[in-house]
């Protein structure tokens, strides 16, 4: 924008006539959040999303891969682009309730997810973990799930701290498709 107020005002007036042209307002587009607005105030309390997801199409549930005892899907409330969750199909709340087969597959899916995310998103590292129980911060405490959050050396900014906002550069469907396409055809754990 030019330095003179008059020229800037003229550009703003011209921009007002064109959709999508930048103006003085900053916007964060988060169309994936519309599902929560349309679903009502507390849809997650009525049904377990991790029990419901496997009954939907991969695209609708954001599932990346289905294993024998567990599956991986994108987080609907991502911390970063590519934030995956690995869940057992069984409705269990705690890690120590998982069978040895579930533990092994959760681990194998996590390792493959890390390899795929490095390839697809060129991330520099990961935060991996489970919040066990509501008191520990689990959003869906009744169904075990492990977070795999890709991290980049340059991914920190002021939005989460100052504005309590996360800027995500890709739509969830696009991220799911890229990860699913890069996932090995015959995972080693199956």
Structure in words:
The chain has a single domain, classed as HIT family, subunit A. 34% of the residues lie in helices and 13% in strands. The protein has 7 helices and 5 strands; from the N terminus they run ααααβββαββαα. The chain has helices spanning 5-16, 34-39, 49-52, 58-61, 100-121, 159-163, 172-182; strands spanning 63-66, 70-74, 84-88, 125-129, 146-151. A 5-stranded antiparallel beta sheet has the order 1-2-3-5-4. Strand 1 and strand 2 (70-74) form a beta hairpin. It is globular.
What would you say about this model in short?
The protein has 190 residues and is of the alpha+beta class.
**How many runs of DSSP E, i.e. beta strands?**
5
CATH superfamily: HIT-like
Give a short account of the largest sheet.
Answer: 5 strands, antiparallel
Report the top-level CATH class: Alpha Beta
Q: How many domains?
A: 1
| Overall geometric form | globular
Work out the radius of gyration: 20 Å
Q: Which residue ranges are poorly predicted, with pLDDT under 50 across at least 5 consecutive positions?
A: none
By CATH, the architecture is named 2-Layer Sandwich
Give the overall pLDDT as a whole number: 80
How far from one another are the termini?
Answer: 56 Å
Number of helices, where a helix is a run of at least 4 consecutive DSSP H or I residues: 7
The CATH topology name reads HIT family, subunit A
The helix-and-strand class reads alpha+beta
- Proportion of residues in extended strands: 5-15%
